[in-house]
Structures are given as C-alpha cells and as structure tokens.
Amino acid sequence: MVTDPDRHGAPRVPPLPEAEWNETLKVVAATVGPLNIFTTLGRHRELFDSWLGFGSMLLLKGTLTGRVRELAILRTAHLASCEYEWAHHHRIGLDAGLAEAEIAALRLGLDEHPWDAADRAVLTAVDELHADGTLGDRTWAALAGRLGENELIELVVLIGHYHMLAFALNALRVRPDAGH
C-alpha cells in the first residue's frame, strides 16, 4: 500500500471561489452548503453536473434502505482511508438509524462486532469488492436472498461509486468541511 506522508497537506485543487460558481453549484450550495466536495469538483463543470445527478440518485432516490446504503458507504470510506467521506457519512449514517457503536465497528474486522446476517452480507460485499474487484458466489447468494435485482445492481454500483469518489477526494486532498 502506498502511503503519502503529505496526505493531509494543502488541497491539490482548491475549492472554486464563490464568484466563479455556475448556476448548478449555486443551487447545490444554497441547498446543502458550500461543501468542499462540491466546490472542488465544481471546477470541472461538465463532469460535476453529470456526477451530481448520478450521485444524487444513489444517495437520495435509490432502492436501498438508508441503513444498507450507509453501511456500504461508511465501510468503503474506511477501507479507502477517505476521511472526507467518513466525516460526512458518519452523520448521515446516524440519521439513517445506525448506532454510534455500529459506526465505530465499521473500522474493525467483521468478526469484531455481532453483525446480523443481512448487515454482514453487505459488509462482506464491500470488503470483497475492495479487495478483489468482484463478489464471491457465497456473498452473492447471501445478498440475493435479501435484496431484489435492482437493489443488487444498485449496491454494487453504490460501492463502486463511493470507492471512485474516495480516490478522487483523497488524491485531490479535499479537506473535510468545518463542523463535519
């Protein structure tokens, strides 16, 4: 594993100043605040506009329960060492009904917390996708016994999306927002 001794250095791409925001970024900032993820990715206007719709669908309009979604996102953030994702989704995870003890356990080995079978299947999927880029048949069967076809597709895409986003946030050194 390559580690960057300057991982927490200055952002490699600074957030876009408010005077340069396009209409999409203005609307997003007015809705959720001028978060660094948006003001940084907003520098690439076409990519930002496309990504925003996709990411919003997964976060706000998906078929997965909030619990499943946030377990997957937080475990992905942990495995990808993405401080930004972890900070934001810690709060969102609490809002989705996760307990503090469960969130803390997402940083541990799967056997170090008494996950029920449904949660364990989701977390195993995250771990396998992170390590191997695919799911084993046993994990797929455990998920397929609990999730419908659309949810199965969405879970794999959600994990991949947040893995990709963690890469971008880490590589660009997007700093956590104040209060998160």
UniProtKB/TrEMBL annotation:
Carboxymuconolactone decarboxylase-like domain residues: 46-126
InterPro entries: AhpD-like (IPR029032), CMD-like (IPR003779)
Top-level taxon: Bacteria
Protein name: Carboxymuconolactone decarboxylase-like domain-containing protein
